[in-house]
Amino acid sequence: MNLAAEYDNRARVPEHPDIIARWQRDAKAFRANRKAQLDCRYGARPRNIVDVFEPGSAGPIVLFIHGGYWRSFDKSYFSHFASVPLQLRYTAAIPSYSLCPEVS
């Protein structure tokens, strides 16, 4: 089994550039129209930052850890995923994290 090939989802989704561009566009628009605490530091590494979207009152927190197989993406692609938790009055936290090969 070739693990590199098995984990290469982009090879299996020919339209992935359009999907990723849509994520970026939707996430940017979402951030522009929401009050949020952006780029809150949670660790010493450069990518150890989190965006926090609050519904206006204290309540449960949803932590969304983005995909990317520890090789790609950051929190800025997924801000719009906070919309449903916010509708349910949950705080949504979306972190970036260190990627390989910086970490293993």
Describe the structure.
This protein has 104 residues and is of the alpha+beta class. The chain has a single domain (3-95), classed as Rossmann fold. It has four helices and four strands. It has a four-stranded mixed beta sheet with strand order 1-2-4-3. β3, α4 (83-87) and β4 form a beta-alpha-beta unit. It is globular, with a radius of gyration of 15 Å. 16% of the residues are buried.
Comma- or semicolon-separated keywords:
104 residues; alpha+beta; four-stranded mixed sheet; globular
Write the layout of secondary structure elements.
Elements: H1 3-6, H2 9-12, H3 16-32, E1 36-41, E2 49-53, E3 61-63, H4 83-87, E4 91-95
Parallel strand pairs: 3-4
Antiparallel strand pairs: 1-2, 2-4
What is the compact description of this entry?
The protein is of the alpha+beta class and 104 residues long. The chain has helices at 3-6, 9-12, 16-32, 83-87; strands at 36-41, 49-53, 61-63, 91-95.
Strand-residue proportion: 15-25%
Shape: globular
Report the total helices.
Answer: 4
Find the count of extended strands (DSSP E, 2+ residues): 4
According to CATH, the fold-level topology is Rossmann fold
Structural class: alpha+beta
**Strand order within the widest beta sheet:** 1-2-4-3
Cα end-to-end separation: 21 Å
Number of domains: 1
CATH homolog superfamily: Alpha/Beta hydrolase fold, catalytic domain
CATH architecture: 3-Layer(aba) Sandwich
Mind telling me the CATH class?
Alpha Beta
What is the helix fraction of residues, given as a range?
A: 25-40%
Low-confidence stretches: none
